Amino acid sequence: MAEFDEDSVKVPFGTKHLDAAMCFPASETDVDTAVILTHGAGGDMNFKHLVSLARALASNGFLCFRFTCKGLNLGYKVKAYRAVWDFLKSLQKFTIKQIFVGGRSMGCRAAAALARQLSEESEDALQGVICLSFPLHPPALMNAHLQRSEDLRGLPDHLSVLCVSGTEDIMCDRVLFEGIVKEMKAKVDVFWVKGANHGLRVKGRSEDSVLDEVNSQVITWLTKQLA
């Protein structure tokens, strides 16, 4: 028997629609925790890392809603993310009580920006943020780290944040990032994947083994937040 089901969804966004996919446990109807994910500057919601994580989440009792937004403007992507959050809140199929937002690279910058925006409106809007390969700066351009981390540093102390990055990520200098983490008011957990680059690939390891490690970290962290 399948551990999860997946439905294709069209999310209203102004005069357009966003392509999305909803992955959820096959045998449960009382799912109350959802995770929204989106992709980075390239690719779409079918990027292997997002699909792998979505299915792992659904197999462990969570609803995962991932979507495609091709716009490279961060503000546009945040508006799209807000539309998805609104859509998820209106779902009749499940009674969602907790929502976590996240994404990969630029997608997690958008998630952090949305989380900051929503938390200023209500403390109960979100429970946390999941950042996969946060793009702290362009390659070799370290001086962008303060501007790019502004929303992360602006998250309030009632939110929890998980950051998963590779130790060899040329867009996330480890020393700089750990300095940013010390400045954050939110509760932060950081998991460094040894030897991984920005795409979370590790020489000498299969992609699936790395994804299993990342997925396990995310699920363990989420379970801890809900305990």
Automatic annotation (TrEMBL):
Highest taxon of source: Eukaryota
InterPro entries for the chain: AB_hydrolase_fold, KANL3/Tex30_Abhydrolase, NSL3/Tex30
Domain KANL3/Tex30 alpha/beta hydrolase-like intervals: 33-216
Pfam families attached to this UniProt entry: Abhydrolase_11
PANTHER family xref list: TESTIS DEVELOPMENT PROTEIN PRTD, TESTIS-EXPRESSED PROTEIN 30
Protein name: Nucleolus and neural progenitor protein
